[in-house]
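Incident log, structure service

09:12 report received: a user says their structure output differs between two submissions of the same chain.
09:20 pulled the input from the user's history:
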Amino acid sequence: MNLKVKFPGGLAVNAEYGPFNIPTNQDGTAPPPFALFLASIGTCAGIYVLGFCQQRGLPMDGLEINQIMETDPITRMIKKIKLDIHMPAGFPEKYKEAIIRSADQCAVKKHMVSPPEFEINTIIPS
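09:34 re-ran on a clean worker, output below:
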């Protein structure tokens, strides 16, 4: 699994992942990289919630996840991420805990809990 980072100009830093180009920018013309990181948490949980509901034929009208980040005022680092899953009216109560367990399966969250090791190198052609 490889991802290439390209520098197309200005403050743009894009990621090429398979056939996808994922633009980022610090000038407001595309999401900044950290916003994509945060979005990956909620959307990953969303994939699991969506699959759970679709597999059971459950109502999804109005289904959404609200992601709230609490920041440490001193370090300005995020210290807590809360996901509020807003269920449609009439959603079966018996699935409430199961849908939470489903969202908890998010691979992004699992990687944050057990982070990978980082190695950074420079490659200079000879």
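09:41 both user submissions now match this output. Likely a transient worker issue. Closing.
09:42 reviewer note: Residues 32-113 form a domain with the GMP Synthetase; Chain A, domain 3 fold (CATH 3.30.300.20). The chain has a mean pLDDT of 95.
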